[in-house]
Amino acid sequence: MKIPQEILPNVTFACGPSQGHKQIRNTPLSETFFERSHRAGDITTNGFYKEATENIKKLLGVPADYTLMFYHGGATPALDSVAWSLTKDSISGLSFGSFSTMWCDEISLKLPKEIKKDFKTPAAGTYFPQEKPDFNASLVILTPNETSRGVQITDEYLKEAWEKKGPDTLIAWDCTSCAGGRNLPQGIWDAMVFSMQKCFGTGGGSSVLILSPRAVARVAEVAKTRVIPYTLDITGALEKAPKFQTLNTPSTINIWMANEAAKIMLAAGGIEAMDKLCRAHYKALMDFVKTTDYLEPMISPEENRSYLTPTFRITDPKIIDSELNGAIKKSGKDCLKDGIGKYGSYKENSLRISCFPFVDFDGTKEYELLTKTIDYVVKELRAGNK
After folding, report:
1. What are phi and psi of 151, to 5 degrees?
2. Closest CA to 31 of 41, 19, 23, 21
3. CATH of region 5-19+271-384
4. Does the chain have fewer CB atoms within 10 Å around its N or its C terminus?
5. pLDDT (tens digit per residue) in 58-67
């Protein structure tokens, strides 16, 4: 299939690593300080590690007394560390997609046997749990935006969790695919984890971990009660944080990119503007979907439908997602080689499209081109299937 070049978008719509801002993408590698020591004072304590910390906290509305750390590895090690270093005698949460399930089942279920574990899952044929987690558990883990299936936890639900939490409960959020794109309620969480490869448009393998004063105290408390593997123990990273240093050697390039991204976002109006922009991207897709006879939103009800990583069901059985996505991936444009395919482990005949800020920082033109491309491919597939 030969798709007309004039209707092809000029960006990637992949959900991570995602599209970076053009100003950052065009910066020479030598200007990202990738050859400098991660212990150098003019890089860390008096350099852009400190600046990045301050800019990200400002962008996300993080309270001044919360501690931000650039953590080793992507979000998965940070999620592992949160479970091991912040759980006392019980842990509860929601498991409703690949990444929240990983946090609940593949990570938290490996905690010592004596710890009570209670995770709620959706009923068959649904996408969000009806049962509430135990808000009195020592740690409650929530994923405001589930990247894999495009399901979100509403602001009202997040506020309810904070209001109903027990006196010794900490609330932890995995914000991997919404930090920097969604204007989340502020100050109602104790731990936040996110990788910078989504809304911030950096490379993969880097994460941010932010803790409240209560969470910092919990780290010290739990460390006295159980043996925690070295790479999962947050204690060392906390000791380095006052100097804006990291425990292990990080990707300085990614921290530099995240700082530049935060500066660009702040200059453009901050998190409120980024939220509005991401909603505009989503609306452009939804307006298109409503005109087709082959796509519909996969997630219902609407309040649980993500506007950052939306998923769409293909309703025409003759149109197979792998064929549609394959044609886009082979369009000849490098930026489209990752396509708009669903998350790998899911069987639904569907598409997943990122609506992060930098996918189209100027508006919705790239999304309008994408919809023209999708429509062209579908018409060609239908013609071939007659």
Report:
1. -110, 140
2. 23
3. 3.90.1150.10
4. C
5. 999 999 999 9
